[in-house]
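Q: Sequence in, structure out?
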Amino acid sequence: MKRKVRAFIFFFAILACALSAAFYLGWTQYKVPQGNIGIVVTKTNGVLEKTVSNERFSWHWHFLIPTNAQLRVFPSNPYRFKKIFSVSLPSAELYSRLLDSNPDFSYRFDFDITLKAEGSELVRLVKEMNAASEDDVKNYLEKEADALSYAIGNEIVKEYTAGDKQKRIELASRYQDIISDCLNKYSVNGIAQVVSVSVTDSKVPDMDIYEKASEAYRLYLDKVGESLVEQSRSQAEGITRFNQNLSKLEMLGEMLRKYPELNSFLKGTGKISDALNSIENLE
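A: Exactly. Output:
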């Protein structure tokens, strides 16, 4: 009887140890530090949709199979980026050289962009881009910040260029509206969460001066074109006269071969041009 009791106790102890080990191996909650998010990646089921956090109990059987699963841990804090968007108007440098003041016909916008990825966004990053570390997430978010600054900057330039003088003056007060419109489009396809976007500094060209410089350059090109046409006409006339004189010389040579006695006439004229004029008169 005592032997059976010992065997039962021993079996129960082994079972308890096995269950404890299984529980410990599959318990993922404690592996995620406070303020972080864990993503379970398995060989059997791929990337699991449900995230792991320190505040919520989680246990995954996938870790009971050796080398089958791994837990990727990412900070959930947002990342702040300073981005600069700059672009010049067409032929800006050329037009600037036409004016004594050498004005700058370019745009520049300084953006302060804060983004973050958590929950479903991190799952997508792991699935679609195989993100494995904080650097991977930060690098992706920085690329998103680049894309956002480019899209918003282009939209501001578009509105500034298309607007009249009054709208250009008022445009600075509409930056946030333009940003909101761009963020609405981004939220449809973007992975990251946009915490905030703002324009901290901006510089825009004087469109009135730019348009005057453009018109002045157009007039200059018109004059250059007219001059080139006149030069071409003069050159064409010169080529025509040359060809005519060449034809006359060929005729003169042919006549001298047929009528050698004309050599004395040519010597008498003293100038080939007089001889050519004489041939033209004979024609």
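Strands lie at 36-42, 46-47, 69-75, 79-88, 106-116, 193-203.
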